[in-house]
Amino acid sequence: MSTDRAALAFSSDAIRALLPHRAPMLLLDRAYDVHPGVSGSGIKNVTVAEPCFAGHYPDQAILPGVLIVEAMAQLVAVVYAAAWTTGADPAADPDTAGRVGYLGSIRRMKFSRLVVPGDQLVLSARLGREFRGLTAVAVDARCDGMTVAEGSLTVTQRGPAGAPPATEPDEAPRPPHRGRGPHGTE
Predict the structure, then answer these.
(1) Per DSSP, which regions of the chain are E strands?
(2) What pLDDT, on a 0 to 100 scale, did the predictor assign at position 172?
(3) Residues with Cβ < 8 Å from 117, sequence gap 6 or more?
(4) In whole angstroms, what is the distance from residue 173 CA to residue 57 CA?
(5) What is the tens place of the pLDDT at every residue in 103-151?
(6) What is the pTM of this model?
(7) Which of 13, 37, 157 is CA-nearest to residue 98?
C-alpha cells in the first residue's frame, strides 16, 4: 500500500468502531500518525482499575506482557482497518470490525522494563511484506522514552465480511490415530 494518504488519528470511540474487541480486552486508547496499511502509533494508558491487576502479582501491580503484545496487535489491526475505511470515519464501513484478522505468531519479543499503573505506553507498528495472507509487523512499546517491549508479530488477513477464507480448510475426515493412548496403552 502507498503512503500517499495523509496520516489519520482515531479516538477510543473510533477504535471501537474499527475493531471487534470490547472491554476488558479493548486495550488501545488512541491511535495517531496512522498511515493506512503501512504504519501507525498508539497510546495505551495503564490504570490501577484494570482487571488484570487483581490476580497478576497482586502485591506488586505489573501489566502482563501478553496484554502489552495484545495492545500492539490491536494497533496493527487499526493500521489495516484504516486502509479499508473511507477517511477517518470508521462508521462509513460498518463491516470493518468483521474483517480484522488474527495474531498468527509472536517472534523475538523482548521485554526490558516492567509496566505499572500510571504508565502510558506509546506503541508503534510498521507493516512488512505480505506473503500468502500473512504479514510480518515490527512493533514496539515505549514508556517515558524507554523501550519496554519490542519484537515482531505475524498477523493474518481476512477478507470482507461474508467472504470465504483465503484457503479452504481441509474438510476430509482423518483416519483414527493408531498410536498409544493417553496413558501409554495401545
Answers:
(1) 8-10, 30-35, 39-45, 103-111, 120-131, 134-143, 146-156
(2) 44
(3) 46, 47, 48, 50, 53, 61
(4) 45
(5) 999 999 999 999 999 999 999 999 999 888 899 999 999 999 999 999 9
(6) 0.80
(7) 157
Verify whether residue 56 is a known catalytic residue: yes
The catalytic residue among 21, 35, 56, 177 is: 56
pLDDT for the residue 180: 52
User: Which amino acid belongs to residue 96?
Assistant: T
How far apart (Å, rounded) are the C-alpha atoms in residues 63 and 139? 18
Query: Which residue type sits at 100?
Result: V
Collapsing DSSP states into helix, strand and coil, what is residue 8?
A: strand
Within the chain, which residues score under 50 in pLDDT? 1-3, 161-173, 186
The type of residue at 77 is A
Backbone phi, psi, residue 90, to 5°: -65, -20
Q: Which three cell numbers stand for residue 35?
A: 498511515
